[in-house]
Write a structure and sequence with these properties.
The structure is a homotetramer of 347-residue chains. Helix content of chain A is 42%, strand content 16%. Chain A is an alpha/beta fold and 347 residues long. The first copy, chain A, folds into two domains: 240 residues, Aspartate Aminotransferase, domain 2 (3-Layer(aba) Sandwich), CATH 3.40.640.10; 94 residues, Aspartate Aminotransferase, domain 1 (Alpha-Beta Complex).
Chain lengths: 347, 347, 347, 347
């Protein structure tokens, strides 16, 4: 009953096998190996578009490096006030961009809207030397509350972003979950909708460490390899990281695994609703948010459930996040649902 | 016959198996898992000293992050003019330190000496606001030319470093090779000799990606976790990285693998000498440097040998580097030696 | 009728004379001159406390450098959402701190409260590696709306700041205006109330360019001279900058000039109220904020008045800021008041 | 007998008068005043070329900001090993560029040559991700040893710089001294010879603080205003800084003052040669370098002379630098020459 995060799961056996297979024989290092070359092609196929792909160690690195390519040190990066890049990366975007300012917008628990971005832009007029200048827009899909921007949502945001002369970044730590929820193609949610750079994360999806910055315009990737290298994110034995992506793409493993995670979340959400705790946000990807009495949360934990409060537990009722992964089993969800029902009855 | 680098080898099967084993079941993420906890203890045993260990993605990150902890943005970091941190990391130390200056010392092809460091210190008097201030000293062991600082070498450098109020960093990308050459304990070459921070690299030694910053004084590691996080080097599924280290330590796998690499280099060096090309530097670790006619190098490459010139091949004779890894076979060395002898005869 | 800012005034003749006087003969450079030494003593007298003083070129530099000394790159700097450091310095604090995050708190048009800081602290728990860490608190006095924190206000903020193990910075671009409003001593509003570092600005007060970072604890100023030098803020002919401060302190010129500015603002505020436009915020220092019809503002401008809207003029009524300086004359205020009355009657 | 530096002089009375004159009445701030506008035109006339001019507080800031505009964080900035930007700015270029590496070339006491730059470029091949990439070239004119690059020197360096796709920066802290020595036009030594950006320093020449970054191509100055602002170098009362430049240009005051300084140095050099201490480097601008017994230097100091050793005085004989300014009098030079002759005879 570990719902603490989708990164508490291990890796899918096919990913581990792909790494082991990749180990045979010598290979060029630092991204010049065959696996890395094949990855470039495989992702171009996946997206239906030429791409420039740069694997890095973590999603945090992917996001921060991507933003450093889009924004200047004197830029404003517009993002949701609950965005991972603002709240959970200990200032990595500020570090990599050389001090850009993350300008936070939007309403907690809701997706960012084009109007909110337009308002943010209005607060940062171009050419006013005293104010940080519009630099980039970043959204997370699926977002931090488990909500999914559909292609129309993304396109509307991309429009105001591009109208302002900016580029659009998407934090895709749970990109596969979004795709599966929507049942759409990777293209629909990225370049076709106007995304310029994607942080593509397959780690939560089932890999060991498979995170990459994906550019849909080679010109936009100019000099990016130096940024990555300076960040210490160019793996010497790069084949082992390219191989993980290839394994996730092979036979649409990503879809199977994200589907499992989403389904588990959906089941958990339904069970919670049945127990009197309807999810606070629509369950679209693999996350469920429940308002629970703190005492109830404690009881659940004492029975082995693992999950985090979304905010500090300062009141008697708090908001909790439950994340399902590819490894979450039906049994786990059922067991948790039963415990929730029973504990709720007791409290 | 791939002598391009020791990172062109794959990973040892035991490392891959350890990763697969670590995959079972849920585990806390971001370094709070059991494997990471065990790693802390295992390395404390290995070093015979309490340590603070921070796995990161690459040796470049380990070095740059370690230096950022020791030096201030206005510091001089004293290092050898051929050091990897200066020559081969695209400015990563400058990035992570916030702009410290790498002050290069020493003679090409030779180890750094205490006198050279003392001279560097004299050029950077404390309190002169115009000049960058003494910040840290960094040496590579085994170094970039395959030479090994023995405990007395290290201690002598540590003495002048500490006398100046600075800390000593060791780039241990080939630390195991140095240990095996010397036949000494990890302690002898680190804290006992005065090393304050070690970049411990097991990747070249046989892992997929096992690099860590190791502090021998917990106080010195204060706030380091934030630096690592900001760099995007805190792995979410951290167990897979700790597990690699544990596999390398298990049954002294590191020693077996470094021993194999060193032995291969030794054999290659001897064969080259026999063919009329005595190694330019003593073969101590797993690297052999040969001065060869450029035409001979081309002939060797055409027969399948892989290796790099140490400097651009601007003259008729150039210096070449041959690196052996744990995966280098006796047959490869013999085949190369034969080709070298034959080609040399023809040119 | 220039109320655009208090920095549209020239310099007081005594300041210019002091600079001319300081020009005679040779003097050591880079802050080692006699004037700089005397400044240290003069400010110690002024504050009734030992100080470390570092003149710099601008208030923006003073603020950013001061914060870089208090906060780490992975820090949160808590400040008011309308604070100059956040809104008007094009990211200078982010640049100098190496990417710290300015966490904005408070209500527009009001002073920051201790409770708001406590809430900000609660959102940034220590030791959570994902979140930027509490680093410093900064307030502006007089603030951006012309409001003045009195000693009790400052002490209450200092208490929660120090309780959290942080240091308190005060942006004193209009410090003299605050002092005059309160009729208190420099000590009362700084170290005695718990301020650790002050950006002391005499430029708006009547100098050419007299801005300094003032530390009340020498230990806190350690290495600050290197930061200043790296920022390019150590003047070679430093005597000319120290001399300006000395001129402002001489015979309490600062008080006379701030008194004039505050009195002009007070008169302007009273006249506006009489004309039917009561100041939106209490007029405490030298700024007056009026809500005016945009058409009225345009009319006033056409008659030669200079002033800025506080926010973009998107509606029919907007908020405007009027700043008085030492050079604002009674005639100017009267003329403006008459125009306001007449124009208001016509619109 | 103050030969410690040309910045130990005060300011010329005309400069101080210009500042006082500029003080009358209100003026727009932050560089939007009339003086700043006139400066743009006056320097365009002076250079015979359209320019973009950005006054800043110090020469260090001018250099570091200029380089940050030309180089990327992953760049190599090629410069002389004795260049002020490398030796005397406490790492300001590294700070402003975000960590670029200053690659030092050349022979002490000599000007940088095109061949040396070509060799530096060869060591930093484009596209090799491990190595910092060619970013910019910087020369100082007159240089740190008082030597002057003539237009042909500059053009030859500009050629190899531009051939490599780089821009050429000139540190002109003593630009006027170079011009006067050569008797050429500002154009000859800058854009006409291929200089892309000049740090123009009139402070040593006779101003209070008159330093600016001058671009000869407006496109190259794009976004520079944000960099300057972030560095805290946009003066609020900017008129006082523009006025200084205007005073120096008025009636060619710069030439008169640099001429006086150069003549004094020439006289001092001749006197030293006559006393048996011929200048170590040709006396071209306003600096004289003498090898003197340390005991002799001590004797001269005890008689009131002020000057610095060029390197630490570790031997019995050391190299000393004597700098003349516009304020150096014939009497001072004569008195020093006599003392030198007498002291030399006694030692």
């Amino acid at each position: 009953m570990n719902f603490a995060s989708d990164n508490t799961a291990g890796a899918h056996p096919d990913v581990l096998k792909a790494m082991a297979d990749a180990s045979a024989g010598p290979a060029s290092s630092y991204g010049t190996d065959d696996w890395s070359a094949r990855l470039q092609g495989a992702l171009a196929d996946w997206f239906g578009h030429a791409v420039e792909v740069f694997p890095v160690a973590t999603g945090g690195a992917a996001n921060a490096l991507a933003l450093s390519q889009l924004a200047q040190p004197w830029s404003a990066v517009f993002c949701h006030r609950e965005s991972h890049i603002h709240v959970d990366e200990c200032g990595a975007p500020e570090f990599y961009t050389g001090g850009a300012k993350l300008v936070t917008l939007g309403t907690p628990g809701q997706k960012l809207t084009p109007d909110q971005i337009v308002a943010g832009l209005a607060d940062h007029p171009r050419g006013v030397v005293h104010r940080v200048q519009p630099g980039a827009v970043s959204i997370t899909n699926a977002n931090e509350c488990g909500l999914v921007y559909d292609p129309a949502d993304v396109a509307a945001i991309a429009d105001v972003t591009h109208d302002a002369g900016l580029k659009l970044h998407m934090d895709g730590a749970r990109f596969a979950n979004a795709l599966v929820h929507l049942g759409c193609e990777p293209a629909d949610l990225t370049w076709r909708a106007g995304v310029d750079v994607l942080s593509l994360g397959f780690t939560k999806n089932g890999a060991v460490a498979a995170e990459a910055v994906v550019f849909f315009d080679a010109a936009l990737a100019e000099n990016f390899s130096y940024r990555r290298k300076r960040g210490g994110h160019l793996f010497s034995k790069s084949r082992f990281f390219a191989a993980q992506f290839l394994a996730m793409l092979e036979g649409d493993l990503w879809r199977e695994l994200a589907g499992a995670a989403n389904a588990a979340a959906s089941a958990l959400g339904a069970a919670a609703a049945a127990a009197g705790f309807p999810p606070v946000f629509p369950v679209q990807a693999n996350e469920v948010f429940l308002e629970l009495p703190v005492a109830l949360a404690a009881a659940l934990r004492s029975e082995g459930a693992r999950f985090f409060p979304w905010h500090p537990e300062t009141d008697q009722v708090a908001l909790y996040r439950f994340v399902c992964s590819f490894a979450t089993t039906r049994e786990e969800v059922e067991m948790f649902s039963n415990r929730l029902k029973l504990s709720a009855a007791r409290i």
